[in-house]
Queue: 4 jobs
Job 1
Amino acid sequence: MSKAIKINLDMVMLQRKMSLTELSERVGITMANLSTLKTGKAKAIRFSTLLALCEALDCKPGDLIQLEED
Amino acid sequence: MTSQESSDIMNTSSQLPAPKYTPALKTWFDFLYYLSGLAMLVGAGFILVVGLNIPGEISERHTDIEYWFNATVIANDVTAAASEIMQVDGKLKLNNTSGRAAFFIANTDSILISGIFSLLAFYNLRKLFANLATQRIFDLENVAYVKKLGLLILVYSLVSPFLTYLCGMAILAEIGEFHKQLQLSPYVSIPIEGILISGALLVLAQILEYAFQMKQEQSLTI
């Protein structure tokens, strides 16, 4: 059984009713990079990015990151 | 430079300074590539025209052959203190031989086989410099070019001594090993520098491959 880290950006954005464009403007990350995060293509996330996302979405890192088991 | 700074540089090629010498080197290797191709064509023409004009009658042949041999110069006087006056090795020019096949063998090895290796090496180098000129540095294509270049030099370094020996034997089988005061034998020398350079290039290819993987990971770090 393999485990993987999943970014729940989609769900948190939906809960906060925030669009990708708005989040991109608030956090200062390009739409392309946010899309990479959303689609799970990202290999890693910087603490600074995580902090900016948490501040913009008013959530905790644990809300964005989830351990997934296949 | 910290790893963060270096990875940032890798990630944004636009921040890299414009390449100074690579466009000029690319033009230079382009020139050498086309020159090698042209030299091979001219060489093949020369071998065919001159070789096919060598007379069939052995006594009428006066072929000049230039090839790699070991040569021993023997004293004319058998009572001399030293029977072997001098030993030389390297590319020797033998004038007025009766060789015909020897002419084809010597020139095919010297011009065509070396030419093919040069052509392939210059092809990889010009492709490599074309990528570097456009700032495509840590790229899988470059890894392949460096690896091919290394393998090419390794193969040539390992094959050429055997080829030179075999060609030398074949040439001597036709023209003979003894010529008055001159005794010839095939020349063998392993180009150790070629093996060292190819090893360094293969290691460099491996490093480039790791760098490419690091760059890919870096570009997917948000």
Note: The longest strand of chain A covers residues 3-7.
Job 2
Amino acid sequence: MDFAFTEEQQMIRDTAAAFLKASSSSAAVRAAMVSDKGFDPALWQSICADMYWQALHIPEQYGGMGLGYVELVAVLEQMGRYLLCAPYMSSVAMATNALLVAGTDAQKALYLPQIIEGKIASLAFNSASRDWDACAVSVTYRRDGNDFILNGNYRYVLDGDNADVMVFAARDEGSVGENGISLFVCPTDLNGIERAALPTMDQTRRQATITVTNLRLDESTVMGDVGKADKHLNKILDLATIALAAEQAGGMQEVLDMSVEYSKSRSQFGRTIAGFQAIKHKAADMMLRGEVARSAVYYAACIADEALNDGPLANELSEAASIAKSHCSEAYFKNAGEALQIHGGVGFTWEYDVHLYFKRAKASEHFLGGSGYHRERVAKMLLD
Amino acid sequence: MKLQFSPEDEQFRAEIAGWLADNLVGEFAQLKFRGGPGDEHMFPEERKAWERKLAEGGWTCVGWPKEVGGRGLSIEQQVIFFEEYARAGAPGRMGHIGEGLAGPTLIAFGSEEQKSKYLPGILSGTEFWCQGYSEPSAGSDLANVKTKARFDEASGKWQINGQKVWTSLAHESEYCFVIARTDPESKAHKGLGFFLIKMDQPGVTVRPIEQITGTSEFNEVFFDDAECAAEDIVGQPGDGWKVAMGLLGFERGVSTLGQQMAFQNELNEVVKLAKDNGAAKDPLIRQRIADAHIGLKIMRYNSLRMLSGGSDGSLQKEALIYKLYWATWHRDLGELAVDILGPEADIMVNAPYELNRLQSLFLFTRSDTIYGGTNQIQRNIIAERGLGMPKELRPV
């Protein structure tokens, strides 16, 4: 039993922190978030060509680095900390995981190398549902000979407007709940796919809507079992949920650091406000929530590795994901809210960065399910 | 990162689990799940007999080095021991203050004479200890000790005068380790001594404190010219604070997983109750039960991190938050338990004031966020040591 980063994992984390501190500075984030694409293509290429982050947990046989989820989480934590604007969550934590969990050998061989080279990919499954599992799917498919015809509207698609490759979840016409779910992967330049960016309150993460109208997909696009891909989709979403929780843990650390630093520099009543217990105790609670978040995320990352490799603890995946996300969602938003309060008036300005974290915290809380949603998932496991 | 224990450690787990299954029977069966926090006053003689049984099996002081008679277990195996001990429902340890506090302090700071005089009684489960730190005027301000120690040249002994409070198991203990002021002019943490005092003597009076639960585990201890032999001061006069605080920095939390196993037993009872009485259908109760489950799981992950941390013994951030975290979690569990009981929570088992386990949990957990450093003191410590924020103003 050794529940600590290895030296190699520490190095990956420290390298990520140093790289992002320089490349995802406040000025860089603010420039990227209002740009056309919502990210800096040169930085994305550098992440791909110099850092190999897209390749982190892709097996070596597809050109990846063959590392695990713990390494991935170590990098995601730093991305959350520095508010990296990039299609990483979508391409790596959603689409890559989809390919790893449900892709055929041919699909992996085709698309994983593209992702490693910096192509953008994402997953579309939700059509304005408050559910974040297979039940959220309402886009339908019907068979036409050997083809599948998809119709419907997706919402909350991360980087959907920028994606080169999409994984689509759809349900057999007339099916309900977790039944009738299929997954497809295809390029985005096919006829029948319309995409539009959705303006977002959290400008650091891009969302889009995708409408599919009589989108015709052949059998080679099918991932996993036709009509029975709900278990794949749920596993992919659990993996993505853990990744998002890692980002949240990183954001929690940064808002704490910002707040402590600010409180030490701000004087009122003849002393720095850091000396007041009202501030110290807020900061202490923020540190507690942040440390606890890390414990939950690292454990979940170990379980994600087990799930990707069919290890003995693989069946803990859903629970571990819900534990991490339910804690991190409320905790990040609380920390961001306290950071704003500790900053006082300047925390309310556009000029200071607190609002970027405050908005990111709320958006991340809702995406893939908030604390209440994940607690109810756990309650079902315990009580029903 | 590795979550599994090694095959050798799992074999050790089987060994201790097997020993407990074989021995927690007969006269000891009634002690299962008894004697923990809130129940420490129960079965004292039977639990002392159990301590002797443990000692026979070599299961006292498992973390002490072999040179002083301990079992010399690795951190992992200590964790496993405490986990299996709690899983089996073995009773609250009468010897935990001697084993966990007095003994390690003597091993680190005591003279050879003190070690050979006191360690064997702790190892054999025959001599019990209590801790004399808190005083009426020294609660959160722990260094504000008023108890005085004066060396009497005529008798060649220390004379102790003053009062300690919140002393667990004082009425069941042979010895008390006491911090007392050796320099009457000194203030705060300077000028203190660390004394080993025999309880059975005319100058020591123990008075139980009746608690919120109607029961008494804590005591007041009065010293009126109590005697302490010249050789029974640990370190020099003036070293008392250093000795008392010396081990805190090396606490790696090996017993935390055992504590959590006990929490798990309580949570299981709460969950079962909610299913039985229908509260499990209430959406708000469901959220709170899930939150309790999630909180306990994360507590475990946090301990695993704590235990895997730096071998230099430095206090890490995840260790710094631990007390505040578990105490608050446990207090919340007590509230959840009675909210699931609903109106039944107000109905006693028996007159005049017999509580069931969940009622007791509700009341007793109010002490968790107070003793051993209140939540407010914990937050000061976290902010100051963990975040480098300014220290509280203290009189010079």
Note: The mean pLDDT of chain A is 97.
Job 3
Amino acid sequence: MVPGMIRITRDDINPGKILEEAEASTIGALVSFLGVVRDDGIERMDLEAYEEVAEEELARIREQAIARFGVSHVDIVHRVGMLSVGDHIVMIVVGASHRKAAFEGCEFIIDQIKESVPIWKKEYTADGSRWVAGEHE
Amino acid sequence: MMISVRVRAFARYRELFGERFEVTVPAPATVRDVVMAVEESNPRGMGELLDSGGRVKPSVIVLVNRERVTGSHRDDHPVAGGDEVAIYPPVAGG
């Protein structure tokens, strides 16, 4: 079994800790992606998930990445709840023997998350609120 | 005979129709029957889920018992009493 974890959490993500734990099981390359709330003139952002299905979908994406790129470690952690500018949204860590598999696996995972995992963002500005449109309408 | 179906709605649809509720539809029921009952539960939601021809809009994602229903016949997919039907708009996570 490939080490790593899947988590949907209301707690902040600690990138250093996740990387450190991934390092223990990885020899070769470790690629990480950290999504952060952008300053688009928003005051805060509320993330909502269909948690049971989102976890199943993340597990499926993780297995696909392992099968497709032969990676040896995968962590996917996604926040839900109210976030502010600069807060962590999502962290993906992919370990592999060589950098190419780790980079490709990591990109594949974030692309798949944006396409199929039931998570939505509502942005709050000084003027009101709006749902962020998906990239795959 | 009427059956009761559990519905979960997310994001914009949750705001319009509620987070968890039940709808009652005549058996045998389909995805389209359930979605129509949901849409009719709030006059402000008219046109959100069904197109002018009464078909479920392609942008509305539908799951029955946590399994996504896709394909050209998804409107006719059967729904039984006690099933959980989830509806949500295109996802925007990551």
Note: The longest helix of chain A spans residues 51-69.
Job 4
Amino acid sequence: MLLKDYYTITSQSTDSESGATLFRIRLNGGHEIYKGHFPEKAVSPGVCNLQIMKECAERIVGKELTIKTMAQCKMPAMITPDGTPELTVSVKTEETADGWQTVASIFNESTTYITFKGLLIPEQQ
Amino acid sequence: MEKQELIAKINQVLADEFEVEQSVITPDADIKSTLNLDSLSLVDMVALIEEEFGVKIKGTELASVKTFGLLYDFVFERMA
Amino acid sequence: MKTALFQGDDIAKLIPQRPPIVMVSHFFGATETDAETGLKILADNIFCKNNHLTEPGLIEHIAQSAAAFAGYNALQSGEKVVLGFIGEIKKLTINSLPAVGTLIETRIAIVQEVMNVLLMSARSTVDGQTVAECSIKLFMDR
């Protein structure tokens, strides 16, 4: 995990209909990042939500990954550690010659907060 | 460009970009609901019209442009 | 290095983010449509791993560069700097992850603004080589 203790995965399952892997997660509202984002209002940084989706994809493929290209990443609603601490991360990867074409999202019962469509490649270095 | 030609081009460009049938785009139809635009994709529509037709549009001018008919007039006036 | 209009603690005048998530270290200047920013990557940057800035750090730098441009424009016209949130990122390509110690330079251009959504394009370079580019939308909370 890039940001230590930023969230925990509480369960993992497979969506039989779509074949996507579903991770239940819980955000840690005490993480130091919220001191700066923002001092008067804790909002989960969009890029940290993106990182959660990538780390879930790493669990699926069993390798450390890097985002190479992103066709689209939409963030129509805000995630806050106080308002929406329990979320579901859905990730579906497809292995291609270039890497893993990945479709992912984070949502709860009422709202989709972020969607991702992009290419992940094995971590360089 | 003749106005009829412009209208046909606008309809085609918008139908392709926002994946709707051209037949649902009519002069009286509401732009946002017809193309399923949220505030994020509304910006894409404006940028697309600017790029395709070489017109400069200020976001604030768009508040009153609610239907396709008004959009045709808006673009046509700026191209003339 | 070019002289910056804002750097160090003065960056806080342009963006609402505070440590440990300040991902712009320099604001070099702006025209009506374009701005140039920079990030000197320090070893204690929270988005660094294996001595390199990772993708969320690079993307956050681009987003904060866009926010700094909006903040600069707000300051120039005597308005308040408001919170901005990433609404969408499109057509992102990452060529390489910059190493600790390097300076990322980023050019931001305003493409369109409708209501409270700003559409901008961004290109980040290190020593003249493009490391990342994308188009980005920010929701401005005003």
Note: The mean pLDDT of chain C is 96.
